[in-house]
Amino acid sequence: MDQNAGRSCSEREAVKFAGIAYHGPSRVEISSSIKYGLLERPRPGNVAVTDLAKRILRPQNPTDEVDGLRQAVLNAPTVADVYKHYRGENVPDDEFFRNALVDTFGLPADKTDEFKAVFFEDLSDAQLIEDVDGKKRILDVARDADIGGTPDETLKKISKGVKIEQGDTCFVMMPFIDPIGGYYKSIYESAIGKAGLKPVRADDEIFATGKIIDQVWSGITAAKVLVAELTGRNPNVFYELGLAHALNKPVVLVSSNQGDVPFDLQHIRVIYYDMRDPFWGEKLIAKVSENIVSALKNPGEALLKRVVV
User: Fold this and answer.
1) How far apart are CA 245 and CA 227, in angstroms?
2) Which of 1, 150, 285, 304 would you label with 240, given CA atoms 20 to 30 Å apart?
3) C-alpha distance from residue 232 to each of 176, 228, 258, 259, 283 (Å)
4) SS (H, E, C) 3-54
5) What phi-psi label fits residue 103: left (phi over 0), alpha (psi between -120 and 50 degrees) or beta?
């Protein structure tokens, strides 16, 4: 940009300005920059610096550079898809992350290491990842940046190929006492409804008659998928979660802090929310609805891994 004042030029001129030779790797760099939205092609064979790149390179206010880098990440194919899939969650352990890159996102197995290096570098530069108790957590900036469509559009994309029938239920395992108990009406009913299922919680729907344990068992066995709110380590929630795992049911795990998630559950996807975020409620509704559908599409990511002795 300094050498050409940001004007369009040929690809050969662009790499010359960068002080490198025009060969295969430099052409890959140009192609990647276009995918990230940092370069554009005003006409065939020519490239120009985009407004997004100028925002990053010549920031006009303190947030321009980070906001620009975040938008670049969200422009990039596959990188953006993986980010949106795991936003608000810890990055899975290496084995599970590799499997997801291949099975869910279609990466060739021999390219996963290269992708991971690029992915984590991108997120670090854009301040989209942080260390929480030794785990890498991907930040959810859905309300602060264009994440490539509205939450409803993201949910629609995830829902392709998922069959949900009328009357299918999602059983919610959570404390009944406020404040967490109040999230059933304000958060989980909305999220489950958006995913196309009927929300069911023990005290509201099935505790009216009969033995409690029989009713809980019935609710869990009938559910197509379940949600477990782990905040506070409520013993009843963990008892019900144990029943769900014994039945090999997919469960979407949610917590406001990592300390409430037992170690042996941390390989399963967990949604973490931060109530200090003014938009935490709407982010959580969107994320829970997406993870419910994702669990139906790829049950392995929401199942407890069985240990064979």
Assistant:
1) 12
2) 285
3) 12, 12, 11, 9, 21
4) CCCCCCEEHHHHHHHCCCCCCHHHHHHHHHHHHCCCEECCCCCEEEECHHHH
5) alpha
What span, in angstroms and rounded, lies between the C-alpha atoms of 42 and 190?
Answer: 45
Over the chain (309 residues), the average pLDDT of each successive run of 10 is 71 81 81 94 91 95 96 95 94 91 94 97 97 91 59 76 91 92 94 95 61 82 96 94 94 94 84 92 94 90 63
Dihedral Cα 308, 219, 179, 266, nearest 10 deg: 10
Q: What is the pLDDT of residue 263?
A: 83
pLDDT digits (tens, 9 = 90+) for 66-123: 999 999 999 999 999 999 999 999 999 899 899 999 998 999 999 999 999 999 999 9
Identify how many contiguous H helices and E strands the chain contains and give both numbers. Answer: 13, 10
Through-space distance between the first and last CA atoms of the chain, rounded to whole angstroms? 61
Three-state DSSP at 168 gives coil
Closest CA to 194 of 293, 112, 270, 95: 293
Which CATH number applies to 151-302: 1.20.1600.10, 3.10.180.10, 3.40.50.280, 3.40.50.20? 3.40.50.280
DSSP state of 63: T
Q: What is the DSSP letter of 92?
A: P
| Long-range contacts of residues 45-51, Cβ cutoff 8 Å, at least 24 apart | 45/10, 45/11, 46/8, 46/9, 46/10, 46/11, 47/8, 47/9, 47/10, 47/11, 47/14, 48/6, 48/7, 48/8, 48/9, 49/1, 49/6
